[in-house]
Records
---
Amino acid sequence: MTTTWKSVDKKSTSQNLADHATNNPISDTTLSSWSRQQKLTMIAGFAILGLLLAMSACLKQSPKPALVRVSSPAPIPATAAPAAAAIPTITPTAAALPAPARKTPKKRPANVNYTDANSGVSFLYPRKFALTSGDKAQPQLAGIGDVPMNFVQPGGIAIATVALPAGSYPGTDFASAFFNVNVNRSVSEQECAHFAFVDTRNADDEPVDAEKVKIGSTGMEMTSSFSANVIKQAETQYYHSYENGACYEYVLGLGTEGFATEGGIEHVNRDEVFAKLEKILATVKIAPVEPEHVAEQAVSGIIGGKE
């Protein structure tokens, strides 16, 4: 059996392929177009991937933010220049603030002024002494009782009495002391120069005439009286002056009690006590009295005289 090999004409084959390509243009165009899109897609994918890798690398290399710690500002050196936009803050210090005004306690005067409009009498006396006036102004001495007025006519009225504190002279036989003012409008000027009773302390027990004295700028008549028993003594000094149509009487009294030689008790200094009382007497002033006050006081004196 004989095999017959047919020879293929290359020229004919080439011609056939060419004819096929010419007769099927869509297939060639599709292949060519698909290849370009794949290339573009691949290029874009690689570009995006590269961008992501680059961003990841940058994030890894960037330093982490440090934690902020709030603290008080550091003192600025004296040589450092202040920032141009900085606004200085002025903090008031204790020295710059005005000190609050301190209220200075007012000191009360050592002496008190007493004034009686009805009689016109005024005087100064120490604040620590006790003052009584009106019906309660009748003076008393401890252990002796009421001290009588020394007018030659009735009608005397007690104006005011100032008493020393009971403990003024501790360790002594001091019991009480006072300064007293009385007035009598029923006594004439001639009668005002006399006293109902006078000093009888002389050796013969004879009365002693009143003594003329001057207290400040006022002339007065003065007498004294003394009484005592076993353990109590009382001494009084009376002063008279005539003004405003009335007789003014000032009484200084001192009372003592006890035995000065027992228990360490000493005699009180009588001159010292009367010196304090005379200082009050030296401040006495007599002002003019209104007529209605004179009439009111005259009625009071009449009623007092009847009693």
Note: The first strand starts at residue 111 and ends at 116.
---
Amino acid sequence: MSTEPYVKQDPHPTQLVFPMPEGAIDAHMHVIGPFERFPLSPTSKYQPFAAPWAEQKEILIDRMGFWGFVVVAATCHGTDNAVVVDALEHMDGRAAGVVSVAEDVTSEELRRMHAAGVRGVRFAFLPHISSEATPSDVIRRIAEKIAPLGWHTDLYFLPDTFEEMEPLIRQLPTPVIIDHMGRPDVSVPVADNDYFKRLLELGGSREEIFWKLTSPDRHTRSARPEDWALALPFAHALLKHFPGNVISGTDRPRPNMNTVIVTPRGDPPIKMRNDGHIANHWI
């Protein structure tokens, strides 16, 4: 587990520079804790501050104006999805869920989560947040279990795993959501970025591939909005090529980001980004 001191999420989102569209959904956020009810997984590689469903609702819906949100299981809770289901049960139909499961998940458990509002399964392939990657053959078997429910498969990966991800994405029997734009190196421009070109080619290979635009700070390793312009051409390229297959989210509370963000903002300087700034760049 990281020993880097954590900073709390910013509780004061800045004013939005646009009117939030009616019915807008934050398609990627997390609910974490409270830890006395929903403890961290013993395998978690980071220890974030809690972000319970009520806090997330207050910030994202009551203050920022989203109609609802998608609760994506945070890796710090492992495959215990009780925190996701609990949040959905409190949201009166204004939230959906994406969970993390093991291969032995039962059909009964999947149906129970479906009734609560779960609509997808997520797999992460990043060593700083996930203890071990799920093998491709296991992902395929889980996808076969969830396909009859109409769920999607959410994949979060880095360029060094693309050789494994590409054939998997082409073959999965479910719609596929690619998290965080596939994490291209935004310091290499779109026109010269061979990895991103391969992502675009992959996106054109089947209709049911969707792209999630989130966290320009994650791509630029900066907490300052003035540094985020490098990420925007990649978002614009995805919107141009796949206009009906792009979704976006705040990624609040970005539970591990202060361990990898290197540029602070504010006075005194902090590493945590502001949710209003994120929305003003992506939504």
Note: The chain has a mean pLDDT of 92.
---
Amino acid sequence: MTEKKIAAAGKGLGTAAARGGRIRIPTLFYAVALLFVVGLVFSLGNGNFITGYNLSTIISYAILLLLVGLGQMCAVLVGGIDLSVGGVMSFVSVSFVIVVQVIGYWAYPLFILVGVLVGYLNGILLTRIRIPSFIATLGTGGIFMSLAMIVAPVPVNVPTPKWGYLDIFNGTFLGMSNVVFIGLLVFLFYFAILRFTATGRNIYYVGSNIRMSWMSGINIARTRNLAFILSGTGAALAGIMVSAVQYGCNPYVGSSYILPSVAAVVVGGTALTGGTGGVFNTLFGALIMSVLQNGMNVVGVDQYFQQSILGMMIIVSVALTFDRSKTPVIK
């Protein structure tokens, strides 16, 4: 009954849009076109851009950003944002490096659970205490960033005899790095949740129209909690991966992924207003961000100017994907 009501509402909105004569191009098309254009520009600017080594570098960073971005995407889809991903990444990274030496492979599920619990905490702050997600996750992110510095004030490394525990990420399969396959599995996990489960459909419904969702009987608090749990899980997985591939970590590593994770979601075409986007958008968004950062270094763009280019990309992406029907018209 719930899905029928929302489907009817969505059909009505679609009909209204059709009557207005406006045809919306799927945001994923923008992301694919943008990736092609950016890649073409950098390949023309420097022939070394399309070498095997450089493409491998781009893919490695894109996979790491994808893990954080997939989680961030879930928070954005319900109309929120998760600024705690950097703190979670840092805390999980340094703690994992220390704990994996003691308990071995059990460190993997342990720190995935840490991400789940942090996501649940963020959800509770949003739904029960009713603190806006921007403020709530900014606070929890700062807390866990501080905890990371307390746990490891300086960079920590995994001793060589313990490297075997990290082969889950650093090994190869069919001639390809395990990182690629793990990234694919995580991608399929989020895709399956959003595409084939009631939770995934509810995430879209709540982000599209929270009032209509509530009237249709959807548990808003539970849906938002689950979205932030998925966000914390993605950040934890990224924290584990970055420690494993580097055989160590520093307590500041997560700070460089906070804004890029949001940018990957937005540039890929997931609307900040919620309800629009998905895993493929985030995949292409992560690839675009990775190509941009790598390409600007390869062609020699001044470091101080790179942030300006990224800023312009984000503004253009938001302009193309922002749902203006959710904001009041000011005349």
Note: Residues 263 and 311 are 9 Å apart (CA to CA).
